[in-house]
Amino acid sequence: MHPLSIYALFVHNLAEPLLPFTANTAGPALLAEPCAPCSTAAPSVTVRRAQLVDVLQLCALVNSYAAEKLLLPRSTEHIALALDNYTVTVDAGGRVLACAALTEYSPSIAEISSVAVLRELQGRGYGAQVVLAAEQVARQRGFTHVFAMSLAEQFFLSLDYRPTPLHEYPEKVARYSDLEASGIEILPKSCFRKALA
Ligand SMILES: CC(C)(COP(=O)(O)OP(=O)(O)OC[C@H]1O[C@@H](n2cnc3c(N)ncnc32)[C@H](O)[C@@H]1OP(=O)(O)O)[C@@H](O)C(=O)NCCC(=O)NCCS
Question: How many CB atoms lie under 10 A from the CB of residue 64?
């Protein structure tokens, strides 16, 4: 990783303290609300803000689905520079099991993206858990809404997201156009929106 990236990471992490929270024993700041899907995740995992040590695993996890066009590809540099936007689920050995990213779209709206769970651990509540945690970070940052682009429609519906037209997010449309122009294939995905209580 470029030394500048590591420096930026360090600054990013210092600029905003980590907000650790553990599955089923969450602190009051995060996952304070009842979270049914979390109860299916193993109690020994921790959901927390991403750290430098997670970057390579994060990159591998996201890009394993980018190869199938389910997620956009991410470089280690991209993830490192945006590290404080990532939330991860890790096991006791530090293995990254799941992740989600939060990107500011406007002062009130953020996009939830790069939601991924290790293939062998899907269907156990980790995806729901990490998205709820990313939403909590969004609330703490003052966002009132989040949106997501995904083929995993049932997943987002189960988390109280509602379908919304993509044209509500013209900058996202423009970004997709730029990516397609650069040769990245974008599958047509549904757009979902959720108001953060
Ligand atoms: C989509 C993904 C993140 C879901 O994570 P997960 O840990 O398997 O999902 P969970 O176990 O937390 O499931 C939460 C809910 O979504 C539902 N769900 C999850 N995946 C689903 C699927 N493929 N089809 C239908 N329902 C699904 C579950 O049934 C559950 O609903 P319930 O609470 O009513 O029982 C995971 O399958 C994944 O990594 N997919 C590849 C990458 C991707 O497509 N990411 C989304 C784009 S941002």
Answer: 14
- Say how far apart CA 103 and CA 160 lie, in whole Å: 19
pLDDT in tens, 2-39: 444 444 444 444 333 334 444 433 332 343 332 333 44
Alpha carbon nearest to ligand 1 atom 16, residue:
155
Beta bridge partners of 110: 104, 146
Higher confidence at residue 154 or residue 28? Answer: 154
Q: Is 113 in the pocket of ligand 1 (CB under 6 A)?
A: yes
Q: Confirm or reject: Cβ of 86 under 6 Å from ligand 1.
A: no
Q: What is the mean pLDDT of residues 93-102?
A: 98
Cβ atoms 189, 112 nearer than 8 A: no
Q: Using a 6 Å cutoff on CB, does residue 192 contact ligand 1? A: no
pTM of the full structure: 0.83
Among protein residues, the one with the nearest Cα to ligand 1's atom 25 is: 154
The domains of the chain, with CATH numbers, are 3-141 (3.40.630.30)
- Residue closest via CA to ligand 1's atom 24 equals 154
**How far does the centroid of ligand 1 lie from the alpha carbon of residue 142, in Å?**
26
**What backbone phi and psi angles, to 5 degrees, belong to 114?**
50, 40
